[in-house]
Structure formats: structure tokens, C-alpha cells
Amino acid sequence: MRLALIGVGLIGGSFAAALRAAGAVSQVAGFDADAHAIRAALSRGIIDRAATSAADAAGDADLVVVATPVGAMRAAFSEIAGALITSAVVTDVGSTKCSVIDDARAAFGAAFPRFVPAHPIAGGERPGVEHAAANLFRKRLVITTPLPATDPSAAALVEELWRNVGARLERLSPEQHDKVFAAVSHLPHLLAFALVEMIARSPDAETCFSHAGAGFRDFTRIAASSPDMWRDVCLANRGPLSEELRAYRARLDILQSAIDAGNGETLHAVFAAAAAAKRGRSSAA
Amino acid sequence: MRLALIGVGLIGGSFAAALRAAGAVSQVAGFDADAHAIRAALSRGIIDRAATSAADAAGDADLVVVATPVGAMRAAFSEIAGALITSAVVTDVGSTKCSVIDDARAAFGAAFPRFVPAHPIAGGERPGVEHAAANLFRKRLVITTPLPATDPSAAALVEELWRNVGARLERLSPEQHDKVFAAVSHLPHLLAFALVEMIARSPDAETCFSHAGAGFRDFTRIAASSPDMWRDVCLANRGPLSEELRAYRARLDILQSAIDAGNGETLHAVFAAAAAAKRGRSSAA
């Protein structure tokens, strides 16, 4: 199978490396606007050929994996749409699904049924193809969100490839995916970025960073993720994220009032509900 | 040396176990209002004697370690003040320092110079003496905040004991300690509790917790900390914490507007500043 990889970063590079290690692909053409990423991918043997454009990469591919930040997917889909062979299957690795599906529908027209929306839950704080690893997806979850229009054989092929590289598969509707990930991924990243940025700007920044052990370190780790990727995610999923952030800010308003009033009961009720929620589900986490 | 431990939980129990393992204490009397904790500490050999009150525990002690939640320290100090032998040194392990110092000054009067305020940065998400471990403080930071009034030999004794159990020592002023930890510890805990509680109350709670991998898991871990302890910390350090929370909410207001307006530049600027702050300091973290 010939693979085209559009967007050569941590996730796309790891998927290509994993598919090669599993013997699922014979040849990989890659395209990325960043020449540095292409050179790194070539020298690590993750791609065999540096394509001159997304269309050039996709031209003879059986499978096209679009692994750009989600904000660049509409352009990538449009570029490759005219170049695909009839049997080609296209998939993505984006952290949002409704926006990506809209982009794919607009670009692919009659070929849209052969697009399989997917989201591997992996990677994170060390972006870039230089950190790509063939084992990145072992035991990790990959969510697919096929639509009624999606060709079942295309969905089955993509899901089988993810299984071949060690992933667990789950299907959600695109809307459910985007709502859940706004809450458990996009909002936590936003909150972490906001806290680390605030502290970095403060006069005590150096002292604060040198005492990061007590809770803040988890935030700094989350906030080391790619700014480009997360800007795109926040914009692509802005409806659900805006709603989650608004609800969260209302919770903080209550906590601010409780602190200012010395109201320990409200604080305790919130903390105890949170601690109990985690304990009740520790086996599932 | 005879040790009295007032408040038998993760931190106090670990310190007592570590001091015994280091050969620094010969006998440990413990008091805790929770009979369950006392039984666990006795059966694990962390304390030798279950005292009937804080004063009973402190009566013949050379060193008294007060390791209750910070909200209970004023009462504990008052109870032991009349029972201390003249040479006794008292210390604490509280996460806030100004409030604890105020409480100690009020309770100890002329004996206040022999109180040494301390804060070991360790422990966290698994509270209770059943998780106490003699190696909990190895290579961990312990901050002391002695005052001009503090007896230098008392401070030296407490700091030497912490060094004996493997900790690194640092001195800060109480005000600086409370401001820094409001930012790097108390606020992150508050934010994590608030997010986990909000998601636990949502109709999608089960789906959200089963997809915690992508950022939310760090929040659930932080939010599994003791609600009693953290209510007390938030109230004891409410001045600095209120200020940090207010500043943070103002940052979130800006991010909400940016998301609602589709303003990618503002989002990117915040995210990039956060990611750069972490990268620039990764060796120090």
C-alpha cells in the first residue's frame, strides 16, 4: 500500500512509522510546508519521498493521511481532491471532528464517502516529527466518527490499520466527540496555557517556576503543547469550547465569592465532589 | 529524642517514620481526633503511643510536629502551649505560613521563638497515614520561614532533621512563601477541583471520565487531594489566593472573548508565551 502523509509532525510521522513497522505500507510520500520537518522525516526513514505539493504526494496513494493542524485541513483537502485515484481512502488525525468533516465534505464532493474522520488520543507535549515513534499508539485510544454517508469498507480499512499499530478503537458521533473533548482536552489545555502565561508575566516568575512541584508542574507540562495546533483546535471547536469555558468561569465566580467571604462550606462541597468523582472512577481512568 | 506528632496523616506520619528510620527519634507519641488514623499509625509502627490529647502527646516531647490541616493549627497550638517542656521545639508542616505564624504567636507567647514554621513540598493525591512512607521527602524541597524572633538553634535543629531525612532546604519570608504558593499550588488545585467538579455534574460525566487521557487526567489527579486540607489552605491563604484567582479570571475573560470572536492571534500569543516559558525553564522544573 502506498501512503501519502500530508503534514509531517509527531502524530502523522508516528502513524507512518508504525504502519511501516507493521508491514502495512510499502512506500510513503510526504508533504509539509516546513522543509525542516521534511528533512527530519527523510533522514529518519519515516518518508521515502519528499513531494513537491500535497497533490503530488496524494497522486498515486492508496491511503492519504492528513495530519496538519486542523486549521490547515480545508486547504489540504482542496489541494488533494483533484489528484486522488478513484480507490483512494483519505483519513485525518484532527482533535476536532465537526469542522474537519465540514471541510472534507466541501472539498471532496462525490469522493466524500471515502473520507474517514479519526482522532488518535496520543502525543502531546513534545511536538515535531523528531519525537515521532512507531509505538506511540500502542494501547492508546483512536476515535473514529464515520457518518451514514461514509463507505463502510473505507472506515473498516482505516480502523484495521489503527488496530495493526496497537490502538484501541471506539466510534462516537462527531458532535459527541467534539463536546466531550471540549471538556476533557480543549478546556484543560486552555486553562493550563492561561495559568502558565499569567505566571510567566508576573514579577515572581522565576521563583514560581523554581517551585513548580506542588501542582503547577502538571500545568506547565500541558502548556508546553504546540501553540499552532491548539489555536486551531480552539477555533475549530469554538462552539462547544466556548460553552464549557463559560460554564467554568461561572464556577470560578462562585469560588471567588466563597474565598472572599471566607465560606469554607462552599469550598469543601466543591472539593469533596471533585475528589469523590475521581475516586469513584479510578479504575476507569 | 522524644517526638510528639499532632495530626497523624500522610505528611506527619511520613516525617515520623523518616525520623525513626534515620535514628533521630527514640519514641513517638501521636494524637489525632480520628481514631482510625491512630490505629493505622500504631499498627504500622509509626507511633509508639496513642496519646489521649494533644497536650498529653506534647507533655514530655523534645520536638512537637503539628501536622493537622492548617485550619486546626490554632486549636492544636493552644492545647499544647501549657504542656510544653522549656526546651521543647515546635514545628509545623502547613501549606500556608502567615496564618500559621499568627496562630503560633497567639498561642505560644514567650515560647514563640521556639516555633519553627516549615512547609515540606511533598505528598498530595493519596492522603492518609496508610500511605505514609519514610522516603517521601528524599530530594524534596522543604521551605522554612523563620522570623527575626525565631531562636536560631531551634531553626537549625528543625532544618537539620529535614536534611537527615533527605530533603533540600530553602528559606523564604512567610509573605513570599504565601504569595508564591498561592500561584503555583493553591490556585492550580482550586482550578483542578473546579473543573473536575463541573464535569462530574454534567450529563456526559461517564463519557468524559472514560476519555480523561487528553489533558483532563492531570486535573483529576490533582483534584483527588484532601478536601479538608484544601478548604483550610484556601481560607488560611485567602488574601494572596483571592488576588491570584481574580487575575486569572481576568485572563479567562480575554480568552473567552477571543474564542467567541474567532480571534486566533490572541489565542496564539497566550499559548506561545506559555509554551516558551516552560521550554525556557525546562531544566529548572
Tell me about this structure:
Two copies of one chain form a homodimer. With 285 residues, chain A is an alpha/beta fold. Chain A has helices spanning 10-21, 35-43, 54-58, 73-81, 98-108, 152-164, 174-201, 205-210, 216-222, 227-236, 238-261, 264-280, and strands spanning 2-6, 27-31, 49-50, 63-66, 89-92, 115-116, 118-120, 141-144, 168-171. A six-stranded parallel sheet of chain A has the order 3-2-1-4-5-6, sandwiched between helices. In chain A, helix 7 crosses helix 11. The two termini of chain A are 36 Å apart. In chain A, 55% of the residues are buried. The model of chain A has no long low-confidence stretch (mean pLDDT 94).
Topology:
Two copies of one chain form a homodimer.
Chain A (H helix, E strand, L loop, with lengths): L1 E5 L3 H12 L5 E5 L3 H9 L5 E2 L3 H5 L4 E4 L6 H9 L7 E4 L5 H11 L6 E2 L1 E3 L20 E4 L7 H13 L3 E4 L2 H28 L3 H6 L5 H7 L4 H10 L1 H24 L2 H17 L5
Parallel strand pairs in A: 1-2, 1-4, 2-3, 4-5, 5-6, 8-9
Antiparallel strand pairs in A: 7-8
Helix pairs in contact in A: 4-5, 7-9, 7-11, 11-12
Assembly state: homodimer
Helix content of chain A: 40-55%
* Largest interface, Cβ cutoff 8 Å: A-B, 92 and 92 residues
Provide the gyration radius of chain A in Å: 21 Å
Number of DSSP helical runs of chain A? 12
Low-confidence stretches of chain A: none
Compressed to H and E, one letter per element, the order of chain A equals: EHEHEHEHEHEEEHEHHHHHH
Q: Strand portion of chain A, in percent?
A: 5-15%
Q: Which structural class fits the helix and strand makeup of chain A?
A: alpha/beta
- Strand arrangement in the largest pleated sheet of chain A: 3-2-1-4-5-6
Main sheet specs of chain A: 6 strands, parallel
Give the overall shape of chain A, derived from the CA principal axes: globular
In whole angstroms, the N-to-C terminal distance of chain A is: 36 Å
What's the pLDDT, averaged over the residues of chain A?
94
Q: Report the strand count of chain A.
A: 9
